[in-house]
């Protein structure tokens, strides 16, 4: 009589900066195409940055503009659970980070990590209930500032949240647009929060993601704690170089 070996739950994650549903330089609205491409990846959890929550003027001018907020349009019936963190607010609308999940979102909180100035940034933290795992899984969607001094402070706040809001032994996945072109985040997040960057662990260096048509800079990252990673990949130029100026990342996570 053979013994059955217990398997750990596994899930697929993806992160992408969707540039408010437009191609580079806002030349063309491509949100419906982008939704199709995200669906084909088949991720269980999708981390998105620069997601429009509302925009009064675009809805009047663009023919296929959805009635629902963009995160709801993207989630549709594929991801029954979603959370949105509004970061940038302007007279005609607002945008921010969003997480779409096939697992129940127990609760979520959007942390404003904006530093003095016009740039508004946030960390969207969700707690998920994953079948077959005794603990809640914590996921944080990140979009950090363009200035090095701002990013240093924001990374410090991310480390604080990873300790104050996440149990030390709980699975934690942090993903998004770190704007860390100088590659200083990895050491900080490892030393201060025990977070490992998955491409560095797998291949020795972070993935190059920007600009997507010919990636030179490693701006987008996925970090994990208390879980393992299998086959992290940069998604192919076709169709993504047309859909976003950031190449998306995806990976299989084992809890």
TrEMBL record:
UniProt keyword list: Endonuclease, Exonuclease, Hydrolase, Nuclease
GO cellular component: membrane
Stretches of the chain forming a coiled coil according to its record: none
GO BP field: GPI anchor biosynthetic process
Domain Endonuclease/exonuclease/phosphatase: start-end pairs: 14-246
InterPro entries: Endo/exonu/phosph_ase_sf, Endo/exonuclease/phosphatase, GPI-anchor_lipid_remodeler
Keyword Protease set for record: no
UniProt-listed Pfam families: Exo_endo_phos (PF03372)
Gene Ontology molecular function terms on file: endonuclease activity; exonuclease activity
Keyword Transport: no
Xref: PANTHER family: CALCOFLUOR WHITE HYPERSENSITIVE PROTEIN PRECURSOR (PTHR14859), PGAP2-INTERACTING PROTEIN (PTHR14859:SF1)
Protein name: Endonuclease/exonuclease/phosphatase family protein
Organism, scientific name: Ramlibacter agri
